[in-house]
Every structure is written in C-alpha cells, then in structure tokens.
Amino acid sequence: MRMTERAGEIREYLSPGHVGCPGCGATIAMKLALRALGERTVVVTPASCWAIMVGAYPQSSLKVPVLQTGFATTGAAASGLRAALDLRGERETTVMGWAGDGGTFDIGFQALSAAAERGEDFIYVCYDNEAYMNTGVQRSSSTPWGARTMTTPGDKWKRQQKKNIMEVMAAHRVPYAATASIAYPEDLERKFRKAASIRSGLRFIHLFSSCPTGWGFAPDKSVKVARLAVRSRFFPLYEVEDGTRYAINESGELPVADYIGGQNRFKHLGSEEIALIQARVDEEWERLKAKAAASPIGQ
Amino acid sequence: MMRVLEGSQAVAEAARLARVKVVSAYPITPQTHIVEELAKFCSDGSLDGRFICVESEHSAMASVIGAASGGVRTFTASSSHGLALMHEMLHWASAARLPIVMAEVNRALGPGWNLWMDQTDSLAQRDTGWIQLYCEDGQEALDSTLQAYRLAELVNLPVMVVLDAFFLSHTYEPVDEPSQEEVDRFLPPFEPKFRLDVADPYVLGEVAPPYIYMEMRRSIQSAMESALCLLPEVEEEFAGIFGRRHGLVDAYRCEDAEIVLAMAGTAASTARILVDELRAAGRRVGLLRIRLFRPFPAQAIRAALGPARKLAVLDRNCSFGAGGIFAQEIRAALCGHAGPAVYSYVAGLGGRDITVESLRGVYEATRDRPEPPTESVWVGLREEILCE
Q1: What CATH number has the domain bearing residue B168?
Q2: For the domain that residue B261 is a member of, what is the CATH number?
Q3: Residue B78 DSSP label
Q4: I need a surface site. Which of A12, B41, B144, B287 has the fewest CB within 10 A?
Q5: pLDDT tens for residues A45-70?
C-alpha cells in the first residue's frame, strides 16, 4: 500500500526523543502524516504542543524542514511559503500547515479562512486535542460540551457545543476536507496522499488526536480512546469534496458512554448529561448520513 | 529617466526594480497607492511576482515571513493601525533574521480616527529590531527602498522605509527613476543565507531556551551595529551608480550654526526654507534631518552638530508620559558628550500643518530661552479648547 512497503520498511520522519507526553496522540498523528507525504514536505507550525515537540535549538525531532510561526498565522505563513516555493520552481514540494485546535478554531481561524478563500495550494491540518493543551488544558471552541478544563472547571464545565469546523471549511468550498483519526492509520494515510494529489486549492484535514494529559486517561489508551470516538460516532470519519460531496468512511455502533466513560474530563457527567450527548451525536450522525446520501462522492 | 511620480509610486517603482517576488498587503489609507501599483505590476507582467491579497496586516507580515523563509525577495507596506496590528510579527521578522522590506506611511492612530501625518505609529515599533529610514521626498523614498534591500540582505534584518502620510505618499514630484540595468548592478539577485529546503531540512524559529536566547538577541544587536557601518558603504556603492547619497543624517548649513533645528520627514523641507531665510538675515542656523532612526546614528549626530549651543528637536510624535521621541533619543546620544542643550518640541500631530511660521516660532523660543524646559513644549496648541 505504501510506496516504501515494497522495500520492507517504512520510512519514518519523526525521530524518537521528541518531548511529547507519554501516549501523545499528536505525535502519532505527525508520524502517520509524514509517512504518507514523504520527504518533500515542509511543515508550518504555530504556537502549539507541536511547536515544543519539534525540539529546542539546535535539535529537531522531524526529518523535514519546519517553519515555526506566530499563533494566528499558519494560513498566512503557509501561503507565503507556497508562493516562494512556486516562484523558485519547487512545485513538487508539499506545504503542510499543522496547527492545533486553538490555532485553527480560534486564533488562527481568520488566516485559515482567508487562505481557503484565496484557494491557496497547501494542506492545512488541524490536529485536534480539544483544548489548549500546551498551556495547561484551557477551553477552546473545539472543546466538546460537557468537558472540564482549567478554564471551565468544577460546575462551570463547558456548556457550549464544539464548533463544527468541517462544515465551516466545507462552506468555503475547499476542494478537499476530511476527518482522520490516529486510530485508523490506513484511512489517515490515504487521506493525506489524496490531499497531496489535489492542487486546486486548500485541503483541510481535521485530525483527531487524543490527549492523555488533558483528557485524563492512561497513556497506553490513546489509540483506544481515539478508536472509541469513531466507533461511537462522536468523531465520524468522512470526506467532503468541493464542499458538497460527502463520503462516510467508518460506521460506528457503540454508545458514546463507552467513549466518554474512560476520561476524567467527563467524569462529573451523570446519565442525564450523557443522554444529551448521545442525542446530539445521533442527530449529527443522521445529518451527516443524509448529506452523504443526497450528494455522495463519485457521482 | 526623470518622471513625475507620486511618493507612493516612487516606492512601488523601486520595489519593482528590486525584482521582488512576493508582495503581500492589506489596504489602509494612505498606504494603498503603493500596493495598488504593485498589484498592477504583478497583473500586467512588468513584475514577475505574486501579489497575495491577505485578510489583515498581521497576515501580510506573516506571509512575507513565510515567503522570505522560502528564499525569495519580499515586500509589504502598511500604516498606523495596520502597523500596530503587525506588531507581533515585526518582532518575528527581525528575530527570524529575514531581510524583508516594508514601506510604512506615517499616520496617526485612533481614536479619534485620523488619516493624517504622525510618526507615533512607526516610532512605537522602535524596539522590534527593524532598521528604520525616514524619507524627505519622493527621490529619497525610491532610493531608500533600493538601499533597504541591499542593507537588509547584508545584515539579515528587515528594513522599514518611512514616508509621511500625504505630504510624501500622495505628493507628485520629479523623480529620477533608474533603469533596470542600473538597479541590477546595484542590487544583485537575492541569495538567501538560509531558507527552508527539503534537501537540507532544519527548523526555523524553534524553541530557544535560556541557554541560547541571549546569544540570539545579541546577534540582532550586533547586526544593528554593523548596519551603522554598512549603510555608508551601501550609500557609496549607490552614489557610484546613481550619483546620489542621503546620509545617516542630513546636516544642512550646520557647520558654524549656533542653533540647529532637528527633525525627520518632510517637515525638514519646510525647515530648509526657514534656515535659508535666517541665514540671509545673518543668523547662524542649521538643520539636522534624521534619516536613520534604527540603529540610532548617535555618532553621526554628534559629529554633525559641530559648535551648536542649542538644538531644537521637532517631534511629530509623542510618547505619552515622556514627550517627543527623537528628542529623547538625541538627548541620550549627547549625554556625556560636549554638545548643545536639547529643546524638545511636539508639533504637527495628526496632520496639523508645520509651516515656516510655526518653525520660526520654535526657532525664536529656542533662541530666547537660556535653558531648555524639562518637558516637551507643544507647538500651535489651541489653548482655548484645551481641558484639564
């Protein structure tokens, strides 16, 4: 399946010794993304856990070039870099913006929206761990309803729904938007390769990256938690082409209680609140299914 | 070739002649004519580059940072609130050691909304690690933009070419526009000292813990210091090809002057008229125009002042709680040296005219007052409407 598999080994671009927390989903995410994209990739990353995990001067945990940039600027910096590479004749180099949910849903959203509107030729990845984890777990507009964070503590747990960033990006009519999960590496890598092959505008990948530190679960459960998010339809895997054609890649069947039950951030929720989450997940799933049925990819 | 150009056009022509590759900008009055002109050049093919229409000034600076990190020559322009919005990324550009050139049109900050001339916007960015050049006329705006690229690429620091709102940005003057061949002789193709390259991967802008951060900052300071020595060399090269030089500072009739007026920007052209008038009447008066503000040319200022007893510094800006900014910097440059007493005046904020008569008032107040007041004196205030 992978080009490198024929040689009997997988080329890795993430070195051991990065400073991510044990079990960090975002490091698995980067490892898989770069496996799919290969060495002709430049990463643009703003303030985020990944700004730290790249390493401190003079070291790097990645074997590809990285441009670190200001928190709000991934979409803009990647646009400028793409222009420079094109003008230097380096069309075949892939530019990948790589921002967390804070850098995407919140502070970086303006620059992302503008880059999508301009039809910039790069892949924008939001690795989503559903809060500001690098600063010590504060709420973002990606934090799901019901979650406790350091800024939504105690009885003030978050009462707002997570922003539906995929629908927002689909509304920009970007040529390709997809969700992906570290628990589904084949699906993830296929989507990154597909994103790299499309050059007609910004490609957006919403990458679910479980966070043992921020969510409160054991570090050896990161992949399991991410898998449960898909299997409970809490985080469905799907693709959108040109903002209008949909395909659902995995169907889930488990109750959301199976997913949220193992995480400290939700442990204060009672059966009533969990039922509300279930109802919301079911409603969103039906809406997604209807879209995929009405306008499927490939027709 | 002599042409009649608007100050904004002079800057845009210089950027075109510098063969910039990526221009990124967001509109703000009175910067718009510069970037409209460059958008036209990119559109009609007279500039082989890309114009990125970003959604904010913050993104304008971020995208030229991205482009410069990719190894191409870049340009942007801004003003006032736009420059203020860029602030974070101004620090980023200099610390990333990127030779970005920006035209900055001096405009007042609101509220109240004010489109007109005021230096506080650019001077508020004095600690961001940008070289700053203040221009007096359209020719100098063109020449400074070309010199800015040469200097920026020598020291790997960004350069801000500063123009007065309207008085310079929107004024048409005869400008000697050099040919492409001449400019190519002065400004070689951009050879980045580093860039993002998949064949030689490394990280730009990564975490710098306490064990390395100070050395990185010291290198910026050293580059600033070297710019003080290199700008005169750049000017010599420039003069060799174009026959013009503008100096770190521009001393006009200062040799034997007892009283010197000091300022930056177009007000200096008005001051020249007054100096000539007073000289004709036998008064020993001179003008010191500050062109380079960062790095601050302390030695050049001391050398230019000669025997002057009094220096009247006219600031079109105010650092609230401290007064005129050029006056503070000049006082610091003179401290511990024999030199004139510094009289500080704040004038012409938010586009209020600075006239020969208002400058004459400044001259006379300085002449008649034996010691400078401790505070900046505000010129031409409408005292009747001032409140407590």
Answers
A1: 3.40.50.970
A2: 3.40.50.920
A3: E
A4: A12
A5: 999 999 999 999 999 999 999 999 99
Residue B258 token pair:
């007892």
**Domains identified in chain B, total number:** 2
Distance, in angstroms, between B187 CA and closest chain A CA?
Answer: 19
**Structural domain boundaries in chain A:** 23-294
Low-confidence ranges of chain B (pLDDT < 50): none
Same domain, B19 and B160: yes
Across the range A127-144, mean pLDDT stands at 98
Domain residues for B188?
2-242
CATH class of A23-294: alpha beta
Domain shared by B376 and B236, yes or no:
no
The pLDDT confidence band at residue A8, using thresholds 50, 70 and 90, is low
Q: Which two tokens stand for residue B27?
A: 């509109």
Residue B22 CB contacts under 8 Å (≥ 6 apart), including other chains: A80, A83, A84, A87, B49, B50, B52, B63, B64, B67, B68, B72, B73, B74, B75
- Pick from B54, B67, B72: CB nearest A114: B54
pLDDT at A3: 43
Same domain, B139 and B10: yes
Cβ contact A118–B21 (<8 Å)? no
Answer yes or no: do A87 and B60 touch at CB < 8 A.
Answer: no
Q: What ipTM was reported for this prediction?
A: 0.96
Burial of B88 (0-12, 13-18, 19+ CB in 10 A): middle
Residues in chain A within 8 Å Cβ distance of B50: 83, 86-87
pLDDT at residue A1 greater than cutoff 50:
no
